[in-house]
Amino acid sequence: MSESTPVLFIHGLWLHATSWEAWIHRFTEAGYDASAPGWPGDPTTVAEARQRPDDIADHGIDDVVAHFAGIIADLPAKPILVGHSFGGMIAQRLLGEDLAAAAVAIDAAQIKGVLPVPLSALKATLPVFKNPANKHRAVSLTAEQFRFAFGNAVPAEESDELFERWAIPAPGKPLFEAAAANFNPHSPAKVDTKNQNRGPLLLVMGGKDNTVPESVTKATLKQYRHSDAVTDIVEFADRGHSLTIDHGWQEVADKSLSWLKEQGL
Questions:
Q1: What is the mean pLDDT of residues 207-223?
Q2: Across residues 159-188, what is the average pLDDT?
Q3: Whole-number Å distance between alpha carbons of 108 and 203
Q4: At what angle do helices 61-73 and 86-96 cross, to 10 degrees?
Q5: 87-143 tens-digit pLDDT
Q6: DSSP tag of 57
Q7: DSSP code of residue 96
Q8: Pair 92, 61: CB distance under 8 Å
Q9: Is the Cβ–Cβ distance between 141 and 127 less than 8 Å?
């Protein structure tokens, strides 16, 4: 493994890029050149993001893909991508477009072709979908809503601490785009799952995730059945959507690192 192999961490909705701080440190220790660029419009800090939600509003999936493709173009080599939630969808898009050496998609949002929409996922995203105007707005969660969507598998006190530390408003547009994906032949949630030459992909699922239940991740795996490229899946049975930021984050990070080593990356 080259010590300079770049790793880009891609956050999902409602979490700031700095929520990857511990992962960056862990991957840097392992010899990677790790960083976590924000989405387009993301302010530098959690506090600024909360104060300026309009900066984040109205950015869709294509905007985020183009933003990271631009970052990748300036790197010395194809990066490894590690994405959580919608970041996991973005990572799969970029991998399918041959812009990455490999990807780890953690509790990744639904890509086009994935049909199950479990009730818990609908409840987790209701704060956005309850108002069609939210497609062009940034929407915040309450601590209680965050507890259901992210922190249901950790003590309530820990969930509330994570909410206070990392939660920011999120653009509603990606959720509306993903919801309409199977009715839109040109959906931005469409991933090239048939690409035979792409780098390896690891799908990670949390068995207690309300926002992206394991049925969604298993259905995502099936979308890759026509490709011979490496597509692996691993489950953390007792984990929810907060698995990248809660007290058990290192188990997920270390599994990701060991998988990358198995792939020779």
A1: 94
A2: 89
A3: 8
A4: 60
A5: 999 999 999 999 999 999 999 999 988 876 666 776 777 777 788 887 889 999 999
A6: T
A7: H
A8: no
A9: yes
Residue 185 has pLDDT above 70, yes or no: yes
User: In the predicted model, is pLDDT for residue 1 greater than 50?
Assistant: no
Ordered DSSP codes for 133-182 = GGGGSEEPPPHHHHHHHT-TTS-HHHHHHHHHHHB--EESHHHHHHHTGG
Q: How many CB atoms lie within 10 A of CB 93?
A: 26
Structural domain boundaries in the chain: 6-262
Q: Are strands 102-106 and 80-84 parallel, antiparallel or unpaired?
A: parallel
3-state helix, strand, coil in the chain (%, to 5): 45, 15, 45
pLDDT of 144 over the 70 cut: yes
What are the C-alpha distances in Å from 77 to residues 7, 93, 163, 240? 10, 18, 35, 33
Say whether domain 6-262 belongs to CATH 3.40.50.1820: yes
CA atoms within 13 A on the CB side of 169: 26
